[in-house]
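Sat 14:20. Reprocessing the chain from the morning session after the first attempt stalled halfway. Input below, unchanged.
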Amino acid sequence: MKRYIVELEENVYVADWEGDPGRTTRRAYAKVFDNRQEAVNAVTDARSYRLFEEAVLILICPDRREVI
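Finished this time. Tokens:
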């Protein structure tokens, strides 16, 4: 399954809490969307508050694991 996070501007991500929209600068706290359409909808919602011209979707690849 492809999952996404949304980067609204450089190092600013959609978060899963209240705000206009809820945002975080810590990627680890970014809200994870279960599909592309949910992520696109989050960008659309965020743009009702600010333009966020540089917003991007970031694909999360759970199959890739870092070996420590």
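The chain has one domain: 3-60.
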